[in-house]
Amino acid sequence: MTTRRGLFVAPFDVLADPQVVGDLAVAAEHAGWDGFFLWDHLQYGERVREIADPWTCCAVVATRTERLLFGPMVTPLPRRRPQVLARQAASLSVLSRGRFVLGLGIGDDWVGEFGGYGDETDPRARGRMLDEGLAVLTGLLAGEPVDHEGAHYTARGAAFRPAAEVPIWLAGRYGNAAPLRRAARHDGFFVIGLEGPDDLDRVEEQLAAHEPADGFDLVVDLQPEQDPAPWLDRGASWVLTRVGPYDLDLDDVRRLIEAGP
């Protein structure tokens, strides 16, 4: 199994500038990192004052790097229109020559990111919206006519060009069955809240029961001081190093990235 190392970057405060994010992505590529993934939030509590748009940052990363895989990690589809998201994802895939990865989830309302803007606050309802939105999104990305009229989304006879093969990773907390089942139907599982590498044994056992496709990615994120080796040894195909979210110092971030994986 190929194992890869990436960065999991919160574009907050001193990193809330797409040009700075682009500089860091270039440094990451030169230092040997394999991926550069960006948090997607509207707000993140009182300690975070500035937040960049991750999609603008992704466009910068696409144009300034040649090898890195990148993408939002993760975008809450229940607050997006799948047809708009499909166009953005396809365009970024074309712009980067196929290096874009789309991370999706239901999101978290712990600081009012949903309720504060009139979006759905019930996580079970957001889960239903995610499943319905995925049906529309994946059809559009495949360039197929999509006829869907559901409780949340409508697409009548729509077909998008350019079509794009965009890997989709689904995020979910460890121990929750629904996100794992959902992820197994796509290309990867970004599992959150693991206590230790041994937890990956249970995740892999549960995933195997759903028969994910070959090349399925199992993704975890760690703090910079954590050793990635035990996680890679237990089956993670991607180990991401977290950058942020609080009290970021740009010089410290640069040193972390330039030190390499």
Q: What is this structure's SSE topology?
A:
Blueprint: E1 4-9, H1 18-31, E2 35-38, H2 54-64, E3 69-72, E4 75-76, H3 82-95, E5 102-105, H4 123-141, E6 146-149, E7 154-158, E8 168-173, H5 177-184, E9 188-192, H6 199-209, E10 217-222, H7 229-233, E11 238-243, H8 250-258
Parallel strand pairs: 1-2, 1-11, 2-3, 4-5, 5-8, 8-9, 9-10, 10-11
Antiparallel strand pairs: 6-7
Low-pLDDT stretches: none
Binned strand content:
15-25%
Q: Radius of gyration over alpha carbons?
A: 18 Å
| Helix content estimate | 25-40%
Query: How is the largest sheet built, in terms of strand order?
Result: 3-2-1-11-10-9-8-5-4
Specify the biggest β-sheet. 9 strands, parallel
Instruction: Please tell me the overall pLDDT.
Output: 95
Choose one word for the global shape.
globular
Let me know the number of strands.
Answer: 11
N-to-C CA distance: 18 Å
What is the number of helical segments per DSSP (H or I, 4+ residues)? 8
Structural class: alpha/beta
Order of helices and strands: EHEHEEHEHEEEHEHEHEH
Task: Write a structural description.
- This protein is α/β, with parallel strands linked by helices and about 260 residues long.
- It is built from eight helices and eleven strands.
- The chain has a nine-stranded parallel β-sheet, covered by helices on one side. Strands 6-7 form a two-stranded antiparallel ribbon.
- Helix 1 links the parallel strand 1 (about 5-10) and strand 2 (about 35-40).
- Helix 1 packs across helix 2 (about 55-65).
- The longest helix is centred in the middle third of the chain and has 19 residues, at about 125-140.
